[in-house]
Fold these 3 entries.
Entry 1:
Amino acid sequence: MFIGHFGVAFAAKKAAPRVSLGALFAAAQFADLLWPTLVLLGIEEVRVQPGVTVVTPLDFVSYPYSHSLVLLVVWGAAFGGAYVALRRARPSAGLAIALLVVSHWFLDVLMHRPDMPLTPLPGSTRVGLGLWNSLPASLAVEFAVFAGGVAVYLGATRARARRSIAAWTLVVTLAMIFLASTFGPPPPSAAAVAWSAEAMWLLVAWGWWADRSRSADAASRTDG
Ligand SMILES: [Zn+2]
């Protein structure tokens, strides 16, 4: 899944109004932020194999550290705990971050072939419902989750400036990147996949920047 993860992060702003959208993006996409670096280090493995699913040509050979359910629970607890400790945030903010990290696994299970491991151990059970084998179903689910999440975000925040261009351009850019990667040619190599996936960090920064152009109503009421 790609923009669906961002959709869930947008929606989480309602539950955690004081947490920046950048941190929410980083949590929902924690697995995909960790993954390309592990691939480039040779610790995890992906192959480009056009036809492996209808939507994506990527064959996720092994990604136990970034994409197993057990380790995402661990990463989620660590990220949420560190956020509460460093930002002196409420435990509910840490819980929202932890749940977002784990949500990545469930959303990926929906789309992937049975390649999502339960544990990081060799020979772990791997699951996946394979929605990527249907282009219309994949587009429908990705855009429904994304649009729903953006709608929740826009309802939970209001523009500080007359227009929050940073937020709107972010939404359009995410949709364009998703469409380009879905309908574009397959990437030339696994390394190219990993290097372009590192651009996810820029989207986290953009989320942080765009969020500054909007204020969360609930937050301004309780901040005093
Ligand atoms: Zn993923």
Entry 2:
Amino acid sequence: MSHFIDQETMRAEEVIEKFRSSGALLEGHFILSSGLHSPLYLQCAIALEATTIAAAFGLAIADEFRGDRIETVASPAIGGIVIGYEVARQLGVRFIWTEREEGRMTLRRGFQVHEGERVLVVEDVITTGGSTRETIATLTGAGAQVVAAASIIDRSGGKADVGVRRFSLATLDVPAVETTACELCRQGQPAIKPGSRKQ
Ligand SMILES: [Zn+2]
């Protein structure tokens, strides 16, 4: 596809192909969870419905971190949970998640980290890096050492900075812009928020 960054590996192309073949890659005019508008939307939950795909993505991410003595994988709910669990399972380590409580990312459900615990943060898609940064801050605040962050897709074109080493299976360079800068809005095309109840 045209949004695809050419220098990526064959594996990245396979990742995108799995999204496309499972109907998880939409083209049109979309409102992302970050609030930004984009002509492309990745519905990760649809790709991850196929447990074989989730396992394949999880393995590819896990392989990248086998030498890092990861003790725990942590993901922001809900989007990161399926892939985070798969990565943790394949690394043979425990899995926890963070979630929002009154807007703030928190560790709930009795989840704890110990001082210096080596944590890998895993998300489905990184767009601005916001939820990964919040998850890292929550874990660090609880005493953990966040070693790295990973995602299936990086749709920041590699630009998102989360303050730790970062890895993605595939990197996309697609416009994600504020409403005021959106060409599709200017053309009067209605924007939709995929997966929202209003559809
Ligand atoms: Zn728009």
Entry 3:
Amino acid sequence: MEVELKIAKRWKMASLAMLVSVLNVCGSRLIVAGLCTALALSAQAEPPVAEPTFPLGVDIAGMDRSVAPGVNFFDYANGTWLRANEIPSDRKSYGYWDVVQELVERRVADLIQHAAEGEPTGGSEGRKIGDYFASFMQEDRIEALGLLPLQPILKRIKEISNRRSLATFLGGTLRADVDVLNDTEVYTDNLFGLWVAQDLDHPDRYVPFLLQGGLGMPDRSYYLDVSAAMADIRTKYATHVAEMLKLIGFSDTVARAARIVDLESRIATVHSSREATEDVQKGNNHWLRREFETRAPGLDWNVFFAAAEFPKTQQDFVVWQPSAVTGISALVASQPLATWKDYLALHAVEHRAAFLPKAVVEANFAFHGTILDGTPELRVRWRRAIDVTNHALGDAVGKLYAERYFSAAAKVRIEEMVDQLRTAFSRRIDLLEWMAPETRESAKAKLRTLKVGVGYPDQWRDYTGLDVVMGDAFGNAERAAKFEYHYHLAKLGRPVDRGEWVMNPQTVNAVNLPAMNALNFPAAMLQPPYFSLDSDPAQNYGSIGATIGHEISHSFDDQGATFDATGRLRNWWTKEDLAHFRAAGAQLVRQFDAYHPLPDLAVNGQQTLSENIADLGGLLVAHDAYRLEVRGRPDAMTDGFTGEQRFYLSYAQSWREKYREAALRKAVLTNGHAPDEYRASTARNIDGWYAAFDIQAGQPLYLAPADRVRIW
Ligand SMILES: [Zn+2]
């Protein structure tokens, strides 16, 4: 439910100026020797890059004033910038978000390379961060090791001799890698994914959620869609699979690849759609451990759960997509063992490709990066090193980030804005004609108890049990994933921690946690161009204010309506409230269904409904909060625009982003958010926007007052 789900976040990042400072530090000060060597190796061809600067106020130069706001508001606000900026060759999309991401990456790189300084012994967090990064940077060592680190896993797969040992292996692959409510990630290449979170019926306890998985491509539609574009991707996937098998020394690769793709297609057939997966009511299915055998026969569940290290006392599970779990389990029994073993070998190498030699990395990227996302070039190694370090030790890196880059004054100012937004939302609830009085009271109770986290968590994670070994990039990644898994398993049976964050402070994003009735606003999102202590209220509220409003309104949207103030999955709306909300939602579904980012592909209004409602609610309360803050003051012109105009322009500029075609296609098919251009068009539902820009009937974005969606 985050504001800006950027897919494949593990492979986002960018930029370089740090390398000059790295070399300076290496030349003059004591620092871990391996780190310096590794960085120096990769640094050779890297020119320094200037810090990005963002205009304080509206980016006038980036606008295209030849386009009328009522014709295309997104282009009006962003057209010149979008035309002037090419998508870098190692990216699938580019915009403000990416520029901020680059800046944060540069800062994080700087923090990571200094983290180990003055910490000669292992075990400290700083040393773990430094060693994790440095080990990944040892490309020569990784080349020299070849596939050796992978061999023990391939050997175990080879030794699978019956369904029982297959179940043992599958249980051992389970990791804490999905999340259906918060930082939404519903894809895993492991056969199943695990999420440990509050029991939606009893939010004072944790329960394990089991999700469908096992596909090599991002979604079932890649296997089942009949379009020519998808058929072409499938052909390329089979070739890719054969190539990966060849790289790990398999023979007869074409025929074996065909059998693997066939198995994955069968898995795809039993998978639930992304749309169904997002429906909490369909997902909240409690199964007792002993019921798996009868409800999903095939896989030896006792063996599976034991191998997955669930304590015997863990009797209840939530099965998010029951028919998929049943279907996949049946396939475990019905499909040839030899095919399963080939499949597992393929997934073993694909899953760990980043930590293996260049030939594997490049083959993996050629398909998953270039074919699926359209990204021509693999990102340079140090950027990937930052990425994997962030992934493994995110909170430890985040602690350094927040200390250095998030000021106490910024925290205070954001908290003031949050208060203003909360007040604005509360007033809107008071004025809602369609909402029943008792629903209104529940809504206000929920708003009062909403826990808003700004910048960083109150409590930091403890990485004491994680062993990071210098020179063992592959092993470090294996141990980090296992450490993360154990961390989540250990929550079972413990009291629920409502202060836990699901994002790191250095993540450029924000998130609503429905079952915790909490929001996380990481420090990295709370900076220009989204927010600045020096920006005027119109810009701050139009940008970060709308983002905060977006997250708040998730607590009161179609999904938020199903979680009460304690986080219990319980509808607290009356039938009439829900009927009104659904009707208004249906109108918004139609509005978004009509957008065609590609000639053969429309936005899925239903799949993106929650996010579109949150955008609309967020923009409305941000505007109210802006008016609250500037009340009594005349609307002053700045840069030739009124405060009202700057507010909406700031909003549209916050969605500044361009996509490669393949990435756009993937986003439309798999993302819960509409492409950014259409998110900027949310303003067409708001009367004030028409007045601010003198939008005329007949212009493409014009909606007659009756057609403007009014929910909040
Ligand atoms: Zn959202």
